[in-house]
Amino acid sequence: MKHRIVVLGAGYAGAYVAGNLARRLSPADTGITVVNAAPDFVERLRLHQLAAGQEIETQKLADIFAGTGIRLRVARVTAVDPERQIVAVADADGELGYDTLLYALGSHGDDRGVPGVAEHAFDVAARPSALRLRDRLDNLGEGGSVVVVGDGLTGIETATEIAESRPGLSVALVARGELGAPLSAGARGHLRRACDRLGVTVLEHTSVEAVEATRVLCADGTALASDATVWTAGFAVSPIAAAAGLEVTENGRIVVDRTMRSLSHPNVYAAGDSVYAIGDNGRPLPMSCASAGYTGMQAMKAIVGRLTGSKIANVKLGYPGNHVSLGRQDGILQMVDHEAQAKPKYMGGRKAARIKAGILKMSLWTNSHPTFCMPKRKRHLAATPDASTENAVPYAPDAPAEKAVA
């Protein structure tokens, strides 16, 4: 019987891991199924551009996985039962069994319990919500007001993108602390100049207590007129992992060892925003595309190693820095040190914007070509699930546990 690998989520982490597992494992001995709620690969890093009115072409997951042997199941995951090794999904079949599970369901916008956010605010955490925001902006007349709540990178990128793409709108950015606090002094100065140039009004050290249909209420009593409120003040993960009984943090992220293996359930791995992984500097990795790449690569290597009995290499678990777009013609590249603190030097301007665009293109290409290094013979045989190939890595079901790196 084939070893059943199920990947939950086909974002930056899930799509990458699934494709690389197909590239490295024999289709004669393993079957890989990817479960994703949408049929498309979503470039989440560009959703603020989509919301601002730019067209972002989507790629079908069926096309991405074509010829790899990966089975795609477009359905919403509703539950995981790690004792029975079953995933419940909202489709006609209902259940899916697994031997190894990769949990990569990502994150969604977090309203933080602030009244009115769910009812009145927009977000750019998913494609449907970004499209709803775009429709709202399309219907605003000249002089309409937009309030972006949240001074993290998503809030900064969203506010500057809307201001540049729609100069007829009034855009305000509400920051709980100092604008661009994680950046170096020079980068913070560049950010302020960009906001001034684009006409973004910045309110620092301001907390939001409620969101209404036409205004944002702040803790200091200020009421900000808002025809469209965009909430970017944090992200949360699905409660599915916690409900399944997996060991999770207080906010529901799966606790893993150095190889992204669940501490409570050894046949479950996690990657991307869903995982609570400690980086090489002893700090938790942040939710980010970069972290998705590192944790996904580590999980993939661990799964392959344990199924083949080979040594598991430690992937570097670091955070190189922040790549911030400030519209299409400006940006900031801020590198950080080993302690994740901003280095004094930064890059800003058009060159930084071009590098950020290049990073996005590279990330999309990598996820759109998940088995780009697969030998031609194996790529052909992957389309026939029952075929075997001498080029594939054999599956060793009784691989000794001591070969794993904890």
Secondary-structure blueprint:
Elements: E1 3-8, H1 12-24, E2 30-36, E3 40-41, H2 47-52, E4 59-60, H3 61-64, E5 71-74, E6 77-81, E7 86-89, E8 95-97, E9 100-103, E10 107-109, H4 117-120, E11 121-122, H5 127-138, E12 145-149, H6 153-165, E13 170-174, H7 185-198, E14 200-203, E15 208-211, E16 215-218, E17 223-225, E18 228-231, E19 235-237, H8 240-243, E20 254-255, E21 268-270, E22 275-276, H9 289-308, E23 321-325, E24 331-335, E25 347-348, H10 350-368, H11 376-382
Parallel strand pairs: 1-2, 1-9, 2-5, 9-21, 11-18, 12-13, 12-18, 13-14, 20-22
Antiparallel strand pairs: 3-4, 6-7, 7-8, 10-19, 15-16, 16-17, 23-24, 24-25
Helix pairs in contact: 1-9, 1-10
Task: Tell me what the structure shows.
- Mean pLDDT is 89; it is low at 373-406.
- Helix content is 29%, strand content 23%.
- Strands 5-2-1-9-21 form a 5-stranded parallel β-sheet, covered by helices on one side. Strands 11-18-12-13-14 form a 5-stranded parallel β-sheet. Strands 6-7-8 form a 3-stranded antiparallel β-sheet.
- It contains 11 helices and 25 strands.
- The chain has 2 domains: 3-108 and 236-319 and 375-403, FAD/NAD(P)-binding domain, CATH 3.50.50; 112-233, FAD/NAD(P)-binding domain (3-Layer(bba) Sandwich), CATH 3.50.50.
- The protein has 406 residues and is α/β, with parallel strands linked by helices.
- The longest helix has 20 residues, at 289-308.
- The radius of gyration is 22 Å and the shape is globular.
- Strand 1, helix 1 (12-24) and strand 2 form a beta-alpha-beta unit.
